[in-house]
Amino acid sequence: MKYLLGLDIGTSGTKTVLFDELGNALAEASASYPLHQPKNGWAEQAPEDWWQAVCKTVPVVLKKSGVPSADIAGIGLSGQMHGLVMLDAEGRVLRRSIIWCDGRTAKQCHRMEELVGRDRLIAITGNPAMEGFTTSKILWVRENEPHVYEKCKHILLPKDYIRYRLCGEHAIDAADASGTQLLDVSARQWSREICSAFGVDASLLPTVLEGPECSGHLSHHIAAALGLPAGIPIAAGGGDNACAAIGTGVCRTGKAFTTVGTSGVIVAHTDRVTIDPEARYHAFCAAIPGGWHMLATTQAAGGSLSWFRNQIASELSYKELDALCEQLPIGAENLLYFPYLMGERQPVLGIKARGVFFGLSAIHQKHHMARAVMEGVGYSLLDLLEVYRAEGTPCNDMVLCGGGAKSPFWSQMFADIYGIDIHLGQSGESACLGAAILGGCAAGIYASVEEGCHKTVRMRHTVKADAARHLQYRHFYDVYRLLYPKFKASFEALNP
Question: What is the C-alpha to C-alpha distance for residues 258 and 425, in angstroms, rounded to an integer?
């Protein structure tokens, strides 16, 4: 039996999991690190903190598992997308990484669309200019920290900095490269047109590989420090959502997954690039050769429920809230919630949107509001799913993961709101499993990503959708759809 390491370089911490070649998790370890916010709306992390987290977690996992290090066959990398890591000619980090949730680059985004044109930018990169993506951060550093930019010789993303430390290679996978806004997502290579328009020297950018390709081999001095044998192949890997797709078996058209964490995301696999001129979803390459993703986000999914519980119902556990909500009828006695606490990215509203309870009356108590929050998150995600369906992408094979999947009540609600059966995955660490599958491909254990998914990904339960409840939810969803476009002008006036 051979074993695979999956590393996920997340925002709150790094998680390392050791799997056998059948996908069974044998041991895991995590290490957290700080988020630096020098100014309101800024978000940075130190790449050295990510590396130290890897150095802490890998030996712990090896010790816990008892697996001989000689039997570790491959390493796969997953991580937060969009973060900017800048290195000098000697490979030294020039400044803290500006990460995905940083919002300082509105001016640069506006200029990007002026330089290329919004329609052309979307047609090539699959997305409009966005503050969270990497290119606007590059332009911000060039304009505001020219002394740093002048020294920059290499640009990497977070997980790719870990690759550099592991094996010395400057590489990236097509999926993560999609989130930079420098990649031609159809051709799966850096766009000369976009790089030229923005004045970004393509020599600064890493080599683009496919997710399961071998990007390098573990170096001797790092292997000794981690307690691993030298020469282990390291897969190109993928961004966290791309790896989570693999770890939930979303590897062919018709398959999709919903993850409900702080935000909510729906990722659908397609075998053709699908770009929306209206930018109602992101078009990204998948970490699977010849595959793409439609990816859309609601900003405050689980974040809405945790806000409600922490601020309004802190005396109740989430399990107690579930039990109280379950006693209420669908529609929470005619109360709707719009989950825009953090603004809304897709499909239409924008950064100035804010949360709304609509229909509040004297009969409503805390558990009515809690149920309305859970239903409102479901309607927001159904909004995204309806866009996919309108584009002709079937999403009838759906996996639910993240914190939302831990609640049987909420899981059933998602199935009923979507009107389709929902599968709950066995692995709670889908991004790490996806990374490990890619590592297995790089090591030759699996002939393809699809084979790796077939051998490792298992479902623990299927939640059956109820047709009658779906019709009831659909009534309230139609009211939701009627109302929320009317809020847009009010949000603009509230937040000029």
Answer: 11
Tell me the two tokens of residue 56: 């802490």
Contact 108, 58 (CB under 8 A): no
Span 47-95, pLDDT tens digits? 999 999 999 999 999 999 999 999 999 999 999 999 999 999 999 999 9
Q: Give the CATH architecture of domain 3-238.
A: 2-Layer Sandwich (3.30)
d(CA 139, CA 144): 8
Does the N-terminal peptide bond of residue 146 adopt cis geometry, omega within 30 degrees of 0? Answer: no
In which residue are the tokens 């925002």 written?
A: 11
pLDDT of residue 57: 98
Contact predicate 244/76, CB 8 Å: no
User: Among this protein's residues, is 240 annotated catalytic?
Assistant: yes
Residue type, 362: A
Question: Would you list the domain boundaries of the chain?
Answer: 3-238
Alpha-carbon distance of 482 to 496, in angstroms, equals 24
- If pLDDT is split at 50, 70 and 90, which confidence band does 385 have? very high
Do 429 and 379 touch, CB atoms closer than 8 A?
A: no
**Which residues fall within 8 angstroms of residue 137, CB to CB, at 6 or more apart?**
82, 84, 98, 102, 105, 108
Number of helices (H) and strands (E) in the chain: give both, helices first: 18, 24
Q: What is the pLDDT of residues 281-292, one digit of tens each?
A: 999 999 999 999
Give the DSSP H or E segment for 15: strand 13-20
Radius of gyration of the chain (CA): 22
Question: pLDDT, tens digit, for every residue of 167-178?
Answer: 999 999 999 999
The residue behind tokens 């001989």 is 68
Distance CA 448, CA 446 (A): 5
111-128 per-residue burial string, b: 16 or more CB within 10 A, e: under 16: bbeebbeeeebbbbbbbb
- Give, as one character, the DSSP assignment of residue 200: -
Q: Which residue has the higher pLDDT, 341 or 435?
A: 435
Token couple for 105: 């680059």
Instruction: Determine contact, residues 414/207, Cβ cutoff 8 Å.
Output: no
- With contact defined as beta carbons under 8 Å apart, do 164 and 54 qualify? no
Q: Which of the residues 49, 173, 176, 240 is marked catalytic?
A: 240
Per-residue model confidence (pLDDT) at position 148: 98
